[in-house]
Records
---
Amino acid sequence: METIKTSDYQALQVYLRDACGILLRDSGLDLARRRLRPVLDNHQLASIEALLERLDRPGRSGLKEAVIDAITVSESRWFSEASVFSMLGDQVLPDIARRNAGKRVAIWSAACSTGQESYSIAMAASEFREQNPGNLGGVRVLATDTSRSALEVARRAHYELGPEDTNITSRRKERFFRSIEKGGWRISPEIRALVEFRELNLLQRTLPGKFDVVICQNALVYYSAEKRKAILTRFHATLNSGGYLIAGSSELAGEVPDLYEPIECHKGTAYRKR
Ligand SMILES: C[S@@+](CC[C@H](N)C(=O)[O-])C[C@H]1O[C@@H](n2cnc3c(N)ncnc32)[C@H](O)[C@@H]1O
């Protein structure tokens, strides 16, 4: 697939918008070509036209998930974004601990990719518990994504840490990581025990349980306003009374349903279930 015909690219845009709610920019043709190349190879398809034809056929080939996977890049970083972790530690956990003293806090890391976000949440909540003994009875993080390959990396819990990972201070490294002889770092058993990874597509209606906090970053940004609203409504249904949604700064595009009350925090806006 050296080039994509403009008409095929337009058909791909329509398919992704209508079937998946994903918005592909007019300027994204080259990017789409690069990202879809391995999908075409794996499914032995010669062109975008052949891909669209196969997507239209009934049956579950995993092709649709592979296309979503390719277009919505998998990448996660430690304690990123800073505002999200500040809202969690400075506003949301203290409020939940006040209202549910001694109870375990349940957090959903929605669209968790390779796990850095989810483990960071477990570490942040553990730090909060250490600094505020007796306030929270425990921590449970459910981390979900559609990407099987990303979930495999997350479950392996084995990472390289470089100079760019400045949020992993030497204190955190000592507490939450174990050095591996052949290179790299593994998440400590105590933190791994707090996080469960599960495959889940946010576009489906399945709700994974009840939570005090939902954290979602860098995933809704790919979707149409209509799909984003549907996902935010499902998040609302999973939240316990008074629970919070925390989203990345680019995630909501200013369109948050009235179901949530905006709570201005020092470094951003969290959304409390009404
Ligand atoms: C850029 S990563 C963000 C990872 C993490 N939230 C973070 O910010 O560190 C985007 C993730 O969203 C996931 N994703 C995209 N659409 C999804 C959907 N419909 N359901 C579940 N996960 C989805 C992708 O598989 C990818 O792993």
Note: The CA atoms of residues 57 and 137 lie 50 Å apart.
---
Amino acid sequence: MNRLTLMKMRKLRDFLRDDVRRRTDFTQTDQTLGVEMPPVQKPLAQGERLLPLPEWRGFVHPRGALDELIGNRRSVRKYLDEPLTAAELSFLLWATQGVRQQTPARVLRNVPSAGNRHSTETYLALTRAAVAAEGTVAFSPGLYRYAPLEHALVCLGCPDKLAERVTHAALEQPFAGTAPVVFFWACLPYRTEWRYAEASHKVIAIDQGHICQNLYLAAGAIGCGTCAIAAYHQQAADALFGLDGQDEFIVYLAPLGRTR
Ligand SMILES: Cc1cc2nc3c(=O)[nH]c(=O)nc-3n(C[C@H](O)[C@H](O)[C@H](O)COP(=O)(O)O)c2cc1C
């Protein structure tokens, strides 16, 4: 590495350090200044409605001891040509962003988050319908947003050539469009900035790592596989879900499908 590149790299490495905390004036954060806390999930826009996810307990039977699930975890880029059930989808969403406890003061989820700020919204691209127990269509192909408080999906429509658009958003990595579902995790940085200001951005990225790891383990437990994707087309991924790219944008994705 030449000297100029090394200097550039060292500057970029700052992102991984926590020196920013010493430089942050926590007396001036929006939280300290009494600004109202941002909502814990995106409110419904006009015309959007909640589509409840089915109960997964009793319908999905996760298998494997934790040591086996951890030991067998791997990235999977080939999926069987089979749909997921709505109950499986429900389980995977619960595992990655589900609410574990809700009181008037706070909402706790199944994954940790710095300061419990949970700056992530989960979007799904369903290239195949998710089926109900009796084999009927529970969620038709299309784009969805997960509403953790209600454990429901919000349908965002279905653009033409969805699988092709998903592959394009995944920087033409072809396996992405072959998965029956692709998880797209967006961040709304202000939810964390409200409390941590400049010290927010590294922890937002760390939070998303926990979410994806739970997806790997939950997928393995129900005969599915997934693969983290951080190489994606920013504008195409944001445009797919109508995100503004500034106050909300995609950070991470993971195609998922059945493997056995
Ligand atoms: C942050 C992150 C980003 C990744 N991005 C991609 C990606 O864009 N494309 C891909 O095929 N795999 C991606 N992977 C998967 C890695 O290539 C994979 O984890 C690694 O090769 C080790 O294989 P294993 O997960 O089976 O142990 C990513 C993994 C992580 C954790």
Note: The longest helix spans residues 201-221.
